[in-house]
Amino acid sequence: MPDDCTCLIDPGKIIVAAKLKYKENQRFLRKMKSLNPQELDNVAHQLHEEVFRYTDCLACANCCKSISPAMRERDVERIASSLHLKPSEVVVKYMHLDTDGDYVFNAAPCPFLDQDNRCKVYDDRPKACREYPHTNRRKFSQLLELTLKNTAVCPAVFSIVEKMKNTLG
């Protein structure tokens, strides 16, 4: 297991570290926009695989505790089906529309997060949850601003960006 094992990092410490390195990471990620998109994808995906070999999301769940995914109608329908409710009942009970027209949860933590950091609707979770933290998505260069924000939420993303700085400098 690597010395910088993100599975053991306190999310609170990551938030502090991310704030301290915000400007540095912002400059670095802006610089990454000038790279060949395929090259950036390759590096990001390789580091994603490396970091997630030793990251235990259930030990953290900071994403579920602190941010809400943007959800579409289809996400609401899947959650409703999982809960044996009507989509309108799920919206009334748990969600509201944000300024972009997406459904978001009324409050954090996620209402479907169990005491053991497991998701009650895991098989039917929103697309944004399934794709989080987005560091293995194609066209990673289009997600650099989101990645910067996610460094303050996800210890794995913080670790990936730190490793990218060492790799791509």
What does this molecule look like?
With 169 residues, this protein is mainly alpha-helical. 51% of the residues lie in helices and 4% in strands. The chain has helices spanning 11-20, 22-32, 37-52, 62-66, 73-83, 87-94, 127-131, 144-150, 155-168, and strands at residues 95-97, 103-105. It has a two-stranded antiparallel ribbon with strand order 1-2. α5 (73-83) packs across α6. The longest helix is centred in the first third of the chain and has 16 residues, at 37-52. It is globular. The mean pLDDT is 92.
Total number of domains: 2
What is the quaternary state of this protein? single chain
Please list the strands of the largest sheet in the order they lie side by side: 1-2
Largest sheet: 2 strands, antiparallel
Short précis:
Helices cover 51% and strands 4% of the residues.
Observed structural traits:
single chain, 9 helices, mainly alpha, 2 domains, 4% strand, two-stranded antiparallel sheet
Topology:
Elements: H1 11-20, H2 22-32, H3 37-52, H4 62-66, H5 73-83, H6 87-94, E1 95-97, E2 103-105, H7 127-131, H8 144-150, H9 155-168
Antiparallel strand pairs: 1-2
Helix pairs in contact: 1-2, 2-9, 3-9, 5-6
